[in-house]
Amino acid sequence: MALTITDECINCDVCAPVCPNQAITMGPQIYEIDPQRCTECVGHFEEPQCVQLCPVACIPGHPQWVESQESLWQKYRRLQLAPVTATTQPLLPPRPLLPPRPCGAPLLAKEGS
Ligand code: SF4
Ligand code: SF4
What we know:
Helix content is about 20%, strand content about 5%. It is mainly alpha-helical. The chain has a domain at about 15-80: 2-Layer Sandwich (Alpha-Beta Plaits). The radius of gyration is 20 Å and the shape is globular. The mean pLDDT is about 85. Bound molecules: iron/sulfur cluster (2 copies).
């Protein structure tokens, strides 16, 4: 099941950066979890990272989002394939492209050459 944040949240900002699915954002009053993106960390970690770190234990299961382990895996796979939109961040940062080099050329130019 997806998780949710209760109104005991103290807005400490610990959970959002550790969520591997970018499911946690600041809401009008407190932090919120998008149940469409929360996989309980399935596919990334053994345990939900937000639950592990929350200092006030205010992240229970979402009562309206009961999902099987298989459903959570399907959600994880869907998120890996989902296009990035204006409201979501890429799941992995893009890798910088190396400049092209002629075949056989050394990786680094020798000093003085
Ligand atoms: S359980 Fe994992 S995926 Fe779900 S909100 Fe917490 S950190 Fe994000
Ligand atoms: S870690 Fe807990 S208290 Fe801190 S912002 Fe997240 S839900 Fe709120």
